[in-house]
Amino acid sequence: MAQDTALAFFSQRLEYTFKNESLLSRALTHRSAASLNNERLEFLGDAILNFVIASRLFDQFPDVQEGDLSRLRASLVNRSSLAEIAKMLQLGDHIKLGSGELKSGGRRRDSILADAVESLIGAVYRDSDFDTCRQMILRLYAEKLQNIPDVDTLKDAKTRLQELLQSKRYPLPVYTVTEVHGKAHNQVFTVECVIDQLECTTSAQGSSRRKAEQSAAERAIAQINQKSTS
Questions:
Q1: Tell me, what CATH number does 212's domain have?
Q2: Are residue 111 and residue 219 in the same domain, yes or no?
Q3: Residues of the chain with pLDDT under 70
Q4: What is this structure's pTM?
């Protein structure tokens, strides 16, 4: 299929036709392919995307607090979510990559796909105006915005444990690294989570202190819930 025909089909999926096709070309050019690439448009698109999604969530959830709104926004604009949109648009077929990225499967890499979506948003804004760009973003996110997850499912284990303890008026847990082993580039951390008043102690391992703490907190939640039902 000729390149111009392929891009015509892509424009149909996007529901937007560029007046300045050089902007589209720039948005689809990875830094591995040329010095004039999509990084600046990615910077612009990232800012626009975050604002548009934040504004929609603000209107859609008038009673949700700032911290939870931030979690909801992060779940929508993260790398995996953007990569899903890129795959829906078959964007990977059109990204210009250097030979190294091509050989390593760059067209399928989530980070490259996500950056290209943000670049595309920046390009549409520069080619048209904010309202046109906003409408395009909301079209791309229509299904995701209709299926917003429960905000509690987006909270990490340490946050959920803290809120659980606060609701019961118990003191916060104490996390202690009890062991670190392995070479510097491949360490394994063992962390203990202690809640004295509940006589609750859990331990977990992870490739970082943070991951080990999250796992220990998850185990503490399970232990507390088990005690409350027994």
A1: 3.30.160.20
A2: no
A3: 1-5, 230
A4: 0.72
What Cα–Cα distance (Å) separates residue 75 from each residue in 56, 126, 137, 151?
Answer: 14, 26, 15, 10
Residues classed as catalytic: 46, 118
194 dihedral zone (left: phi>0; alpha: psi -120 to 50; beta): beta
The residues that bridge with 62 in the sheet, in sequence order, are: none
d(CA 72, CA 121): 20
3-state secondary structure of 4: helix
Q: How far is Cα 95 from Cα 25, in angstroms, rounded to an integer? A: 9
Tell me, what's the pLDDT at 2?
44
CB 173 within 8 A of CB 195: yes
Separation CA 53–CA 42 (nearest Å):
16
| Structural domain containing residue 113 | 3-149
Each residue's pLDDT tens digit, 115-129? 999 999 999 999 999
